[in-house]
């Protein structure tokens, strides 16, 4: 019996939290504190769940075939790690003790850059699944390359 990989089940949480935090910060430009006050909690939850998703991803790295798939896996990991660093920095800079601060220009820049890396990392993650067939338990979609050298 093949086991279901844990990584795909966990990645939705940081993606959702970081995306909503970015949206809340930018919405705060028009809506004020009613929007951005949610950002710190979303960033914290996103960062915590990203660590769990990354740990699961590292455990599943052995299932990635060598070659192009492994290069895409490293690109995916790099983009997501950089996103974690940027969103973590955004969280740290946006707190006064445990009190969230209104986003400033640097906060919005960190949000935008982190979100761009999140999208890029997600694209590489999808490429691993839909192009290389990683995590498909031997049931790769038609045309998927299982072990490209």
Written overview of the protein:
The chain is 68% helix and 3% strand. It is an all-alpha fold. It has one domain (7-130). A two-stranded antiparallel ribbon has the order 1-2. α2 packs antiparallel against α6 and α4 (39-60) packs antiparallel against α5 (68-93). The radius of gyration is 17 Å and the shape is elongated. The two termini are 28 Å apart. Residues 3-136 form the DUF2231 domain. Keywords: Membrane, Transmembrane, Transmembrane helix. The chain crosses the membrane at residues 39-61, 73-93, 105-126.
Task: Output the radius of gyration.
Answer: 17 Å
Q: Which percent range fits the helix content?
A: 55-70%
Main sheet characteristics: 2 strands, antiparallel
Structure annotation, total helices: 6
Question: What would the average pLDDT be, to the nearest integer?
Answer: 90
Q: Can you write the helix and strand succession as a string? A: HHHHHEEH
Which structural class best describes the helix and strand composition? Answer: mainly alpha
Strand order in space, largest sheet: 1-2
Please describe the topology of this protein.
Elements: H1 7-10, H2 12-31, H3 33-36, H4 39-60, H5 68-93, E1 95-96, E2 99-100, H6 105-130
Antiparallel strand pairs: 1-2
């Amino acid at each position: 019996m093949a086991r279901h990989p844990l990584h795909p089940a966990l990645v939705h949480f940081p993606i959702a939290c970081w995306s909503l935090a970015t949206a809340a910060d930018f919405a705060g430009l028009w809506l004020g504190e009613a929007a951005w006050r949610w950002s710190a909690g979303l960033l914290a939850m996103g960062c915590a769940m990203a660590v769990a998703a990354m740990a699961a991803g590292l455990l599943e790295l052995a299932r990635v075939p060598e070659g192009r798939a492994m290069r895409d896996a490293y690109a995916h990991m790099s983009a997501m790690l950089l996103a974690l660093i940027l969103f973590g920095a955004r969280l740290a800079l946006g707190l006064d003790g445990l009190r969230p601060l209104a986003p400033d220009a640097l906060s919005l820049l960190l949000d935008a850059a982190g979100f761009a890396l999140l999208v890029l990392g997600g694209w590489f993650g999808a490429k691993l699944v839909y192009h290389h067939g990683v995590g498909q338990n031997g049931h790769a979609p038609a045309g998927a390359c299982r072990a490209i050298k």
